[in-house]
Request: fold
Amino acid sequence: MSFKTTGKVLQVLPEIKGTSARGEWKKQDFVIEEPDGQYPKKICFTLFNDKNDTFSKVKEGSEVEVSFSVESREYNEKWFSNINAFRVDLVQPNSGTGNNPPSFSPSDIPPMGDSGDKDDLPF
Reply:
């Protein structure tokens, strides 16, 4: 199951590298603030290995859309949850014409007819 959210990047944490039985690995954590009415939420995401490259153009203060999955695992009878990002896209700022109605001038209004009827409604 995957999810998407949009928010502003608050913090980019240092990249962490290591070696396991499967070889070398690296992870990148970052925090976004998701606007949610009166109480915005802060969420920390993790990018692993080759997914880190999707984060190269993102800077603190950028508006991003994050595709992610949530996973939990048990260790020593305790449960831990991870929020793993697998795609991070920059959100393009609005061009200013998004929800604005089209402009018009008085010449766009059709002229009234001279048929003698005050209106042309059939009732």
